[in-house]
Write a structure and sequence with these properties.
single chain, mainly alpha, two-stranded antiparallel ribbon, 2 strands, about 5% strand, flat
């Protein structure tokens, strides 16, 4: 498979950063720029008003809902369910060792 990134000059004199595999094919990096992750980025984005780059995550606090009354749970469209636990014991058939 030939790539459009490889020129005839590259095939004759490959760059040093290329790696050669045992199958006589070249492995070469295709890099692109990504933003650096630095400390204080969130504060800087808020400072300049770049809200489109800030992710806000909302979630339900289930511990709070667990303390609500049944009437209040019905108001939000849910109800208290049953949670069953099972326990078991393994007997050795009355044998003594």
């Amino acid at each position: 498979m030939q790539s459009d990134f490889i020129t005839a000059q590259d095939r004759l004199h490959p760059p040093r950063h290329w790696r050669w595999s045992p199958l006589e094919s070249a492995l070469f990096p295709l890099a692109h720029g990504i933003p650096g992750r630095v400390r204080g980025m969130l504060a800087r984005l808020e400072e300049i008003g770049a809200v489109e780059a800030i992710k806000i995550v909302k979630s339900v606090d289930w511990d709070v809902l667990d303390k609500w009354t049944d009437e209040r749970l019905i108001e939000v469209g849910t109800e208290r369910g049953k949670k069953e636990r099972f326990a078991y014991e393994i007997f050795d058939g009355g044998r003594t060792s």
